[in-house]
Amino acid sequence: MAHPSIVILTGAGISAESGLGTFRDEGGLWAQHRIEDVATPEAFARNPQLVVDFYNTRRAQAHDATPNAGHTALARLQAEYDGDVLLVTQNVDSLHEKAGSRDVVHMHGQLDSALCGACSHRWSAPLKMTVGEACPRCSEPTARPDIVWFGEMPYHMDRIEDALSKADIFAAIGTSGNVYPAAGFVQMASYVGARTVEMNLDPSETVALFEETRPGKASVTVPAWVE
Ligand SMILES: CC(C)NC(=O)[C@H](Cc1c[nH]c2ccccc12)NC(=O)[C@H](CCCC/N=C(/NCCC(=O)O)S[C@H]1O[C@H](COP(=O)(O)OP(=O)(O)OC[C@H]2O[C@@H](n3cnc4c(N)ncnc43)[C@H](O)[C@@H]2O)[C@@H](O)[C@H]1O)NC(=O)OCc1ccccc1
């Protein structure tokens, strides 16, 4: 019997125990900053310095952070499981990679990457990006954080939707289910008959759509689930 194919979606909750703030929890990122001021293309056009500073701060925090047992367990699952495992993350940090995961699908971009707004060239971002940084390919002063902002199309949607259409198991870890299209993945997986499990500290907005819930800290629930 072929091994069931697994699709995993992670959110800010899996990086919380590594010291990286989540978005919506007490004192989270969105409590300190208005999405409209730092995470939309309009915000970047209006006040690029504010946006670049916001992501420079997060890049520095992520740079100093280390993965926790939740990240490590998923890396081990990818390494040892004989079936297909697709690890999709909404997180822009590189803690999955630091834990040893390969081929992580960053649907909302990465802090470690810079993007040219003119020619879409990508290069590894310096720890501190500057406004008007020149693109190494077209030399236009149009560098921006390689992050998917609200109103922008997430990355790798074709690959994600293809994997969801073949999934036997869908697991969501540390995400509040507030932001789409990611929050809709559980419906897409259920639609093809996949088993669905949510591992979250608090029930998400979409908890009712999951067959199974394993409440608790990701550093505990994920290793137990991978076992
Ligand atoms: C606010 C919301 C209503 N708005 C949207 O969803 C919008 C608009 C929209 C589109 N479709 C819709 C349908 C209905 C309504 C609205 C929409 N979506 C978009 O704009 C998207 C783009 C959205 C991406 C925006 N960028 C991010 N991030 C990068 C930036 C950055 O990082 O700065 S979103 C950002 O917030 C999202 C939510 O965060 P979570 O990761 O879930 O974190 P949160 O803090 O909310 O929750 C943490 C959870 O962890 C738990 N937890 C805490 N500690 C632990 C712990 N220790 N262990 C376990 N769990 C834990 C907590 O209990 C909690 O549940 C993540 O995706 C994250 O990446 N683009 C788009 O739609 O383009 C067009 C399109 C799309 C498809 C096809 C055609 C056209």
Automatic annotation (TrEMBL):
Signal peptide per UniProt: none
Subcellular location as annotated: Cytoplasm
Major enzyme class: transferase
UniProt-recorded Gene Ontology molecular function terms: NAD-dependent protein lysine deacetylase activity
Record's keyword terms, sorted: Acyltransferase, Cytoplasm, Metal-binding, NAD, Transferase, Zinc
Binding residues for NAD(+): 11-30, 90-93, 174-176, 200-202, 218
CDD domains reported for this sequence: SIRT5_Af1_CobB
InterPro entries: DHS-like_NAD/FAD-binding_dom (IPR029035), NAD-dep_sirtuin_deacylases (IPR050134), Sirtuin (IPR003000), Sirtuin_cat_small_dom_sf (IPR026591), Sirtuin_class_III (IPR027546), Ssirtuin_cat_dom (IPR026590)
TM ranges: none
Binding site for Zn(2+): C116, C119, C135, C138
Residues at the active site: H108
E.C. number(s) listed in UniProt: 2.3.1.286
Cofactor(s) needed: Zn(2+)
UniProt cross-references to Gene3D superfamilies, sorted A to Z: SIR2/SIRT2 'Small Domain (3.30.1600.10), TPP-binding domain (3.40.50.1220)
Cofactor note: Binds 1 zinc ion per subunit.
Catalytic activity: N(6)-acetyl-L-lysyl-[protein] + NAD(+) + H2O = 2''-O-acetyl-ADP-D-ribose + nicotinamide + L-lysyl-[protein]; N(6)-succinyl-L-lysyl-[protein] + NAD(+) + H2O = 2''-O-succinyl-ADP-D-ribose + nicotinamide + L-lysyl-[protein]
Source species, domain of life: Bacteria
Pfam families: SIR2
Principal location class: cytoplasm
Domain remark text: 2 residues (Tyr-55 and Arg-58) present in a large hydrophobic pocket are probably involved in substrate specificity. They are important for desuccinylation activity, but dispensable for deacetylation activity.
Similarity remark: Belongs to the sirtuin family. Class III subfamily.
Function of the molecule: NAD-dependent lysine deacetylase and desuccinylase that specifically removes acetyl and succinyl groups on target proteins. Modulates the activities of several proteins which are inactive in their acylated form.
HAMAP family: Sirtuin_ClassIII
Protein name: NAD-dependent protein deacylase
UniProt source species: Tateyamaria armeniaca
